[in-house]
Amino acid sequence: MKFQPGCKPGPGRAKGSRNRLAGHVFEDMLKIWTDPVGLAVDRSKLTKGQEALLQLFRQRPQEFVRQILNALPKEYQIENVIGELSDEELWQRIEQLRAMDQEENRSVN
């Protein structure tokens, strides 16, 4: 049903209801993530989340790295990488990126 001019909108969704649902989902995921793996003696201290990460690391290391980087805030990734570089290394990296950008533009045109 379309909103008609002059009509007052209804109360809508209760304030915080979406956040409450997301909170419940997050709590459920956290319970599974932090559960111990179980019976294996050498893995008795691992959680299901740690075991899942280990399996991903062993079977698909590139996907493992991708998932880890996706989980980190973008600001954290950039600040840490830049913070570890000297001024000279930073300028070299900027020049490399510029050269890559120019090469990419040439290949597109």
Structural account:
With 109 residues, the chain is an all-alpha fold. It folds into two domains: 18-71, no CATH class; 73-109, no CATH class. The protein has helices at 17-34, 48-59, 61-71, 74-84, 87-108. Helix 2 crosses helix 3.
Topology summary:
Blueprint lengths: L16 H18 L13 H12 L1 H11 L2 H11 L2 H22 L1
E-strand count? 0
Structural class: mainly alpha
Report the sheet with the most strands, covering strand number, pairing sense and barrel closure.
Answer: none
Distance between the termini: 48 Å
The helical percent reads: 55-70%
Task: Based on Cα principal axes, name the global outline.
Answer: flat
Element-by-element helix/strand order: HHHHH
**Number of spatially distinct domains:** 2
The DSSP helix count reads 5
Radius of gyration (Å): 24 Å
Mean pLDDT: 78
pLDDT < 50 runs, ≥5 residues:
none
Strand content: under 5%
